[in-house]
Design a protein that fits this description.
With 328 residues, the protein is mainly alpha-helical. The chain contains 14 helices and three strands.
Length: 328
């Protein structure tokens, strides 16, 4: 029989099992002080709720945990914060249950309500054009500048994920030691990419991106390394050391480029993917086509862009309708 750890009054320190779990995380899992402080606050809430219910922690079941979670949610705790709180409780019970002789983890299977899904950040058409039309003088001559412009044009032209962009090869290659998984086919004006879940798709490449790509490919030998490994030798985009470009370099260069172009917000590669989807949907009104272009397995993922499209229409309405701006 286990010993009750629910005291008559709330303790000033955490009960020993909870404190021991935090020490375990610090010593053996190397959790940061910030994370441990957050977990300590979450466990304090568990102790307070259990004390209010006159419930020893070892007697808590799934129904109790659901009640505690509902109470926190009713008190204003957001879905994301509640999910973190439940994760802390779940981790504690998972660790403590075997030594305390519990039948199982009472938090297993208890989930926080889904957080409302925020809209993806997308550039306006005007800002996307300003970004890609902004070409400092050095971009016309420096290989790295031509590479950057080609990458950004391709991200926006084809809606690629960052991982898909850096994984592209110059063309399809198959040897005894190497086979391309993603590549560009300039003759057909398309890229073939291996996306999430091992799903391969073909996406068109626009004229502006093809032009930028040709200019980059013409100077690519200036950055390419001699005797490079196959994955680097076949890479469409390479860094200054001749190796396949890293995602971090793409992120850094795009942020600098957007800042130099005077865009009002931070721009990362996924913003260009969101912009591609939003702008195509605004023009074509074909959700299924956008789903295929983005490589979404479920159309519900793509449907979020209809909300962006509605925002665009609502803004146009507010600007155009003679009675839209009336005040009550």
């Amino acid at each position: 029989m286990t010993r009750s750890i629910a005291p008559a009054t709330p303790p000033t320190a955490l009960p020993a099992p909870l404190d021991a779990w935090l020490q375990h995380l610090q010593a053996h899992r190397r959790y940061s002080a910030h994370t441990l402080d957050a977990y300590r606050r979450d466990l304090r809430q568990l102790v307070t709720l259990a004390h209010a219910a006159d419930l020893p922690l070892e007697q808590a079941n799934q129904a109790h945990i659901r009640q505690f979670a509902a109470r926190l949610h009713a008190q204003g705790l957001g879905a994301r914060s509640l999910a973190r709180t439940l994760a802390a409780w779940r981790g504690f019970y998972q660790w403590w249950a075997p030594t305390a002789g519990l039948a199982g983890n009472p938090v297993a299977g208890v989930r926080a309500p889904k957080a409302p899904r925020g809209l993806p950040k997308a550039l306006s058409v005007e800002h996307a054009q300003a970004l890609l039309d902004h070409a400092p003088a050095q971009l016309s001559t420096e290989p790295a500048g031509l590479r950057d412009l080609a990458m950004f044009e391709l991200l926006y032209s084809s809606g690629l994920r960052l991982s898909e962009l850096v994984g592209l090869d110059l063309h399809y290659t198959r040897t005894a030691d190497y086979e391309s998984s993603s590549w560009i086919n300039r003759d057909e004006a398309e890229v073939v990419v291996l996306g999430k879940g091992g799903k391969r798709r073909s996406v068109p490449v626009g004229k502006a991106a093809l032009t930028a790509l040709q200019r980059w490919i013409d100077v690519r030998p200036q950055l390419a390394a001699t005797n490079a490994a196959a994955t680097d030798a076949n890479a469409l985009f390479v860094g200054t050391r001749g190796r396949r470009i890293s995602p971090r370099v793409v992120q850094t260069q795009l942020a600098r480029f957007a800042q130099a172009a005077g865009l009002p917000a931070h721009v990362h590669p996924h913003v260009l993917r969101h912009s591609f989807a939003s702008h195509v949907l605004q023009s074509a009104q074909d959700l299924r086509a956008v789903q295929e272009l983005l490589g979404h397995a479920n159309i519900s993922t793509t449907q979020i862009y209809t909300r962006l499209d509605f925002q665009h229409l609502a803004k146009a309405y507010d600007q155009a309708h003679p009675r839209a701006g009336r005040k009550s």
